[in-house]
Design goal:
The complex is a heterodimer.
Chain A lengths: L30 E3 L1 H12 L3 E5 L9 H6 L4 E3 L4 H13 L3 E7 H7 L1 H9 L6 E5 L16 H6 L5 E3 L4 H13 L4 E5 L3 E3 L15 E4 L4 E5 L3 H11 L7 E5 L2 E3 L3 H8 L4 E9 L4 H11 L7 E5 L9 H7 L4 H15 L2
Parallel strand pairs in A: 2-3, 2-4, 4-5, 5-7, 6-7, 10-11, 10-13, 13-14
Antiparallel strand pairs in A: 1-8, 6-12, 9-11
Helix pairs in contact in A: 1-7, 3-5, 8-12
Chain B lengths: L22 H25 L1 E2 L1 H18 L14 E4 L5 H10 L40 H14 L6 E6 L6 H12 L5 E7 L8 H4 L5 H7 L3 E6 L3 H13 L6 E6 L7 H5 L6 E2 L5 H13 L1
Parallel strand pairs in B: 2-3, 3-4, 4-6, 5-6
Antiparallel strand pairs in B: 1-7
Classes of the chains: A alpha/beta, B alpha/beta.
The structure holds thiamine diphosphate (TPP) and magnesium ion.
């Protein structure tokens, strides 16, 4: 048992871990409140197969919006994630289309067996919508789903989605329901930024999209890292570094054609993901390249292969190199080294 | 009921100055409970909002444990002979830090680093960060399973220490808790004491509304345990229950269900809307300390 070293001080106020209910959005951002909850209510008004379930986390996954709008279509399972996922399987067997919420850590670590065998193997249309992906809480390893994509990419037939923003989430919800098979989506909750509607973009399940073109560097990004990639690209205009951003919201199945096409151009390439560098986007892209005979170098930006510290999110995002500022520094250094 | 030195074979605590209901001993525990609540308020103010409701509700139980019942050495938190007290509810961390400070395992000056960057006192209690914290909680429903293994290990090594697990009513929802309950009953882990904080609160609302688990004490009994249920703010009742549970027949694990009140000891928090995350405005902390003092002196 190693005790973290620290010196106790009563010195100036330090940043603290956010309360578990905090949103990620900055004050100056355009946001939508609870995009998952509202999109699900809209969908359920058209489609009476939609059912919501949560495991004592409706309020913290935005499913409370659905619960309050359609109480008779919602099941509170209690804090019992295995029973949650098993119940969803049963409902799907009876022809319903469940949307199931908990935190990503509990869906993947605790309920994996139920998701794998009762839902994926059975090929059921159950949609897991899970909050706190990667580093979106400073609470520590118990709540930081830093390896959920690595856990799930090996599960046959599971569609995996990592949305960037409220636009992605709103557009994904009806497509997840329409997809006749199991899905897992990493949800952003509370006040969620709107980013992608500033671009010529729409979410299409299974498709990667070039959100912004650029001649020098290609950022292949997923989830909330696409927002930071776009911010970094904008910041680097001042350095005359022309940065393209390819957003890959669906990690499985991977849009290999688009990835190979964009990586075929002569640019420096970096992957950006809110996940450990093991088993997520970087691995998926590298796998695609190698299988297709490409020896192209790709630099991974993601979380380290460690249990992360507890602390304030801005501190931790900088510490682990996934903040916009650190991303800008990494791109600048990579570009500088290539042009020395 | 033990009337004299209630220290068990290995223990070093509890001088034989009084009986269980003796005023002196109770006064000391009452004072510890007040200090634990004050310590919790100091920490909660750093974060601004959070788990203060829970810390205030479990303070009396922690006072009975850390000021009286547990065998521990403040300057040697890993002492072999200590009673192991496992907090599976990581979010109750500030309550545990408050008790560890009261027991002099942690320096009180450190409390205002709670949940701050590079602090040894993270928002969710983890063994890798803090002396005196036995396990990393936070993912709920683990504590009782680990407690079983510790109970088995202590027995194998002829160590007469007890293992305690403080769990929440929400954790009763988890299948793993009942798997562990069955294992403890089957393997006759009579050196295990589970304390269930029934504060009737979970993340999505009142526990009874989220998922009914009553009758909790009887459920444990049907799993082969000896169970008691007391008012979690009645110090003599808590003391008596723990002492009697330890003295019970061999061969059965023991469970104490405590009914508690979120925000206990601070009047305006006791009466505020009950939430998993209690909101406290920046200008309310002074009032909280004041009301705590008033309820202590009353
Ligand atoms: C396995 C697991 N599922 C879900 C959560 C999220 N969560 C944190 S606290 C909590 C409420 C659990 O009930 P309880 O501990 O009784 O809550 P409290 O009395 O503190 O309000 C939930 C669902 C968790 N930490 N672990
Ligand atoms: Mg509770």
């Amino acid at each position: 048992m190693s005790i973290h070293t620290s010196t106790a001080t009563t010195a100036p106020k330090r940043l603290t871990s956010d309360a578990m209910s905090a949103s990620l959005a900055r004050e100056d951002q355009r946001v939508t409140a609870a995009p998952l909850g509202h999109a699900l209510v809209e969908l359920a008004q058209e489609d009476d197969r939609i059912i919501g379930l949560s495991a004592d986390l409706a309020k913290y996954t935005d499913l409370h919006v659905f619960r309050d709008a359609m109480p008779d279509r919602f099941y509170q399972i209690g804090m019992a994630e295995q029973a949650l996922v098993g119940s969803a399987a049963g409902l799907a067997l009876e022809g319903f289309v469940p949307f199931v919420s908990t935190y990503s850590v509990f869906a993947t670590r605790r309920a994996y067996d139920f998701l794998c065998l009762d839902i994926a193997e059975a090929g059921l249309n159950v949609n897991m919508v899970c909050a706190l992906p990667g580093l979106t809480t400073g609470y520590g390893p118990s709540h930081q789903a830093t390896e959920d994509l690595a856990i799930l990419r090996g599960m046959p037939d599971l569609t995996i989605v990592d949305p960037c923003d409220a636009v992605d989430i709103e557009q994904a919800v009806p497509q997840l329901a329409a997809h006749d098979g199991p899905t897992y989506t990493r949800i952003l909750r509370g006040k969620v930024p709107r980013v992608l509607d500033e671009y010529d973009y729409s979410f299409e399940l299974g498709k990667a999209k070039l959100v912004r073109d650029g001649a020098d560097v290609l950022l292949v990004s997923t989830g909330l890292m696409t927002e930071r990639a776009l911010e970094a690209a904008r910041a680097l205009e001042a350095d005359r570094i022309d940065v393209a951003v390819l957003h890959v919201p669906t990690l499985k199945p991977l849009d290999e054609d688009t990835i190979l096409r964009e990586l075929g151009k002569d640019r420096l390439v970096m992957t950006c993901e809110n996940h450990t560098v093991i088993g997520g986007l970087f691995d998926a892209v590298a796998h695609t390249l190698v299988r297709n005979g490409s020896g192209r170098q790709v630099t991974p930006v993601g979380l380290p292969d460690e249990f992360l510290d507890a602390g304030a999110l801005p501190t931790l995002s900088d510490r682990y190199g996934v903040s916009t500022g650190k991303l800008v520094e990494r791109i600048r250094a990579m570009h500088g080294a290539a042009h020395r | 009921m033990k009337t004299e030195d209630s220290t068990r074979a290995t223990g070093e605590r509890i001088p034989a100055e009084t009986t269980v209901t003796g005023q002196k001993r109770l006064e000391r525990i009452r004072e510890a409970a007040f200090n634990i609540r004050s310590n919790a308020l100091i920490q909660a103010e750093v974060q601004g909002q959070g788990y203060i409701g829970q810390a205030l509700d479990i303070a009396d139980v922690l006072a009975v444990l850390y000021a009286d019942q547990l065998a521990l050495r403040p300057d040697d938190p890993e002492w072999e002979g200590r009673d192991r007290c496992l907090l599976s509810i990581g979010h109750y961390a500030l309550a545990l830090y408050a008790a560890l400070a009261e027991a002099k395992v942690l320096p009180a000056e450190e409390l205002d680093t709670y949940a701050s960057d590079d602090s040894r006192l993270p928002m969710s209690a983890m063994a890798s960060y803090t002396p005196g914290v036995e396990i990393s909680g936070g993912s709920l429903g683990h504590g009782l399973t680990i407690a079983n293994g510790i109970a088995m290990g202590l027995k194998r090594r002829d160590n007469p220490a007890f293992v305690y697990n403080i769990l929440s009513d929400g954790e009763l929802n988890e299948g793993s808790t009942w798997e562990a309950a069955a294992v403890a009953g089957h393997h006759q882990l009579d050196n295990l004491i589970a304390i269930v904080d029934f504060n009737d609160q979970q993340a999505d609302g009142k526990s009874s509304g989220v998922l009914g688990m009553e009758p909790v004490d009887q459920k444990f009994e049907t799993f082969g345990w000896i169970a008691r249920r007391v008012d979690g703010h009645d110090l003599p009742a808590l003391l008596t229950a723990l002492e009697e549970l330890r003295a019970e027949e061999a061969g059965k694990p023991r469970c104490l269900v405590v009914d508690t009140k979120l925000g206990k000891g601070v009047e305006f928090l006791e009466n505020r809307e009950k939430l998993h995350f209690m909101r406290v405005a920046p200008d309310e902390w002074a009032k909280a300390h004041q009301q705590l003092k008033e309820s202590y002196e009353a």
